[in-house]
Amino acid sequence: MVEIRTIALFGVGDMGAGVGRTLVEAGFAVWSDLSGRSPETQARAKAAGIADAGSLTAALEGADLALSVMPPGNALAFAKSAAAIYPSLRAPPLFGDLNAISPATMAEIQRAIEGGGGAVLDGGIIGPSPDKGCPRLYLSGPDAAALAPLLARPDMRTIPLGPNIGQASIMKMLYAGLNKGYWAMMASVAMAAAKFELLPAFLAELEANNAPAFKTMQTWVGFLAADAHRFGPEMDEIAETMAAAGVTPHFHQGARWTYDLLDETPLRTETRATWDRDRPVAASVQIYLEALARRG
Hints:
The protein is α/β, with parallel strands linked by helices. The chain folds into two domains: 6-164, NAD(P)-binding Rossmann-like Domain (Rossmann fold, 3-Layer(aba) Sandwich); 171-294, N-(1-d-carboxylethyl)-l-norvaline Dehydrogenase, domain 2, CATH 1.10.1040. Helix content is 54%, strand content 12%. It is built from twelve helices and eight strands. An eight-stranded mixed beta sheet has the order 3-2-1-4-5-6-7-8, sandwiched between helices. It is elongated, with a radius of gyration of 20 Å. The model has no long low-confidence stretch (mean pLDDT 96).
């Protein structure tokens, strides 16, 4: 029987803080390693009720469950750092990776954690932070079925997929591959339309005859630069997942190119809170094209 009272949560961004907050409200003791983190991160943690353990070792020591909620490009390195500490712990916590990573990366994390004497839980979060909606937390692994009801919250559904490590990561890759791949394609098509001096006519065609695509373009194309630093590495993980299924990875390799370009623009400094929602799509696309021109 899995028993969870204390949780070490690593990655107190928008999603991590929301997950931590709802778990604190559920009665769990939740802490993190906030040493060296920005004042904004520390303020988010405090608002969520997440305590500062002071170090990675101290956060892992005494925890029943460790949760990693961070950009996909950081997931493996962090897991290896935790795994290096595991042999020194009295009782290493179950290590739950909730990041947007491929099953191959999840397998590397599993090898690292198990090499340090621990066990892993595979997870994938689909949807907004619990602070903004009700995400679905998919879980897989030997402990998934037992843990799902323990972690379930009114603002965070938990869905066990079975005992096989990797299934939850694959679910996240499939969902993100569709949505974030689609958004990158929209940005690329909009840039091409602008280069051919057809963007106003193209947007008018969408508005008249493909209202869902028009709305999605209005909602996302101008914002993507703000999250491009996270979405880019995620495309690598998705491409690897697709290739493992024998399906072309080239769609998402192309999406990585798009996100890398957007990450070179001044709009990369925006956030979900500061993004100018009144900025026309054409204005955002022009900024993207300026970055493309700088590439020569």
